[in-house]
Amino acid sequence: MKLESKVPTGPIEKSWDKYRFELKLVNPANKRKFKVLVVGTGLAGASAAASCAELGYQVESFCVQDSARRAHSIAAQGGINAAKNYPNDGDSIWRLFYDTVKGGDFRAREANVYRLAQVSNSIIDQCVAQGVPFAREYGGTLSNRSFGGAQVSRTFYARGQTGQQLLLGAYSALMRQVGAGTVKLHTRREMLDLVVIDGVARGIIVRDLVTGKVERHWGDAVLLCTGGYANAYYLSTNAGSCNVTATWRAYKRGAAFANPCFTQIHPTCVPVSGEHQSKLTLMSESLRNDGRVWVPLKKGDKRKPQDIPGAERDYYLERKYPAFGNLVPRDIASRAAKQMTDDGRGVGNTGLSVYLDFADAISRIGLDKVKEKYGNLFDMYHHITDENPYEQPMRIYPAVHYAMGGLWVDYNLMTTIPGLFCLGEANFSDHGANRLGASALMQGLADGYFVIPYTIGGYLTGHKLPKVTTDHAAFVEAENDVNNRTKALLGTKGKKTPAAFHRDLGRVMWDNVGMGRNAKGLQAALSKIPEIRAEFWKNVTVTGEGGDFNQVLERAGRVADFLEFGELLAKDALLREESCGGHFREEHQTPDGEAKRDDEKFSHVAAWEYKGEGKAAERHTEPLTFENVHIAQRNYA
Amino acid sequence: MNITLKVWRQKGPAAPGGLVEYTVSGVVPEMSFLEMLDTLNEQLIAKGEDPLAFDSDCREGICGMCNLMIDGQAHGPDKEATTCQLHMRRYKDGDVVTVEPFRAKGFPLVKDLVVDRSAFDRIQAAGGFVSINTGNAVDGNSNLIPHDKAEKAMDAAACIGCGACVAACPNASAMLFVAAKVSQYALLPQGQPEREKRVLAMREAMDKEGFGHCTNEYECEAACPKGIKLSNIARLNREFLRATLVSE
Questions:
Q1: Pick the catalytic residue: A216, A288, A330, A435?
Q2: What's the topology of domain B3-111?
Q3: Stated pTM of the model
Q4: Could you tell me if A178 lies within 8 Å of chain B, comparing CB atoms?
């Protein structure tokens, strides 16, 4: 397998413009002859489907939810970054680029990140034009706030519902095309396999989740916009339907999977309350703009937070990182919280949480202002915990939130399978080893609105794509594979539910491949995961039938894939013998407990190639070079 | 605590349906309502029985996927909360709770508690957008939008498309849903070029889907998990009247 990044040479400021010019164009009359399949309707999928249809391609769009408006992008709270520099505070495309590369701990491709920063401004304009009601100043201009480890105010937002509003904007653009007949929308469809003909992606196999019918769809290109794999950990901030199945099946058909060990653990989530827990809820990072994070100075201090005087509190982020204080990037804040709870200074019944306190903010800016800024988040917290955050500090703890890793893509967002593209969280490309706040929305929309509409044309004109039909042997084979798998799941007739297996896997992942990783723990995970997988195929119980609406079967299929994927994630973590961003190897840290990269040996992307059932995956590398950003130990102190 | 559930079970759209009683034990106050149903389902699956089919996804009140009628109230007893945000601390040991799907002509039943809300997508496709192709936008600050207008538009745009308004309405009217979208765009300069066309098209699509008309019952506003105000329906009516009177 050859990893050709196709990154343009020359000055980085000009590279995307030059590259775009050099891409071949598709004649307008020819566009309608090409069919593009888009899987997923989150920010990346909806924006890509709408934009490709506007250009004149035939588009078919697929999602697992009952409507294209529900993908998990909708849950993003805080905002979206752009280098507009409206506040006149020193921002620029270059600074956004620089911050993102540094925030990712120098494990992302410079050229991709530069392009992302470059198109960020167009995204804001596009969304405003669609009627996205961003927050405005009294004079009518767009509001900005600082967010997630940035020292400039470059984040645009719509209350605590920015993801929702951006997704509804993209959904409205998509539905406009559906109404116009240029996009055919298939809801409640799950992609279960990729069809590759002569080495080129030519279609997908999906299951209609209502009737259970398995369908074949052909296309000239396939775009996977299927989100991240955080649910491999069972408990995460992701929605229930978020899964790795589409990208995993693509991996098994030949697409390289890059940096699976780069997972983001978000510092501010509502802590776990018990065994019954089905998901964790994120409390927006914007809360750290005004909230102060602390734990008691004394170990095992059981006093109520109100009764602990200031001198006996440890505002540990402000102490350790005076320049950034409570606004340090996510990986750093999460790790610091873990250090505090490991040290026996965690709070709450479980001892697995820290305080996020608004008392100072309320006395500084007043209760009304705090309500206006964070009201919906406080209400959400109150609903879940029955504790009133206006009266006592919130309790928060890190939780798995985002996947920086994903399918390997080149500068065109194409995977190692020609014709198979991967956009948004599902790909690995822009965030390196750690994603900065308000950058996920930016990347999803950049890929869908402003990258793929150009690069897909270059692919479609540059390749001979003979007409295919869905009775081709490759379609038959892929459909048979899907049916056999369904049969196997239904036929096991064991005693344990898919959710119970998912929980077992999640526990191994969180304990051994979580915030702090070491060789011993990773090796333990690598022996436990195959055991759980073997037990799964012997003892899983799936009720009902394949040809019916069957949520147990859906879950079982996803868990089966997580059980394979989890092993690759752990293996990737074991072989990356350095600490960077969200990947913290305890063996590699500075004397004060910070992540210690090994640029000599690991300044590269690790991309895994599937070698067949029962064979070890092969690790390939794409070297990362930094010509524009000064590479250094990240320092937020 | 133990909770007794009376749940609507129906194998498919054509099959007969009815309430079936289950007792769920080991319910704790911190559980969400849906986690309580998960617990029941785990027990049913382990016994080899078909679990309850119900929709949910984000489980944090924003995706709009969950939709249960709990003791006759859309999304249950909590104000401005979705089903997934309801917690069992609302209930006490021995309570009997009835769980049904969102019922409306426009929302045909799929299975058990799952309904088909694709009618909302078709209404949206009829006109719930600004016709602006990617790449055509002017600078975001070139249209100044007063703070209050933007906030009002945001109030309307907060709709999650769950369908509680329809389920709560005795006429199964979708007016609040349509009004929220029409209002968002009517309040913003971006929505002006298609203002009349939009309201006429969305209203026509709404009628075609078999939703009823508004008779000011106020049930939709009471059930809405996002606090969308009835005044949006007044705006919808005004927009509709305006569009029928004013034409080029």
A1: A330
A2: Ubiquitin-like (UB roll) (3.10.20)
A3: 0.97
A4: yes
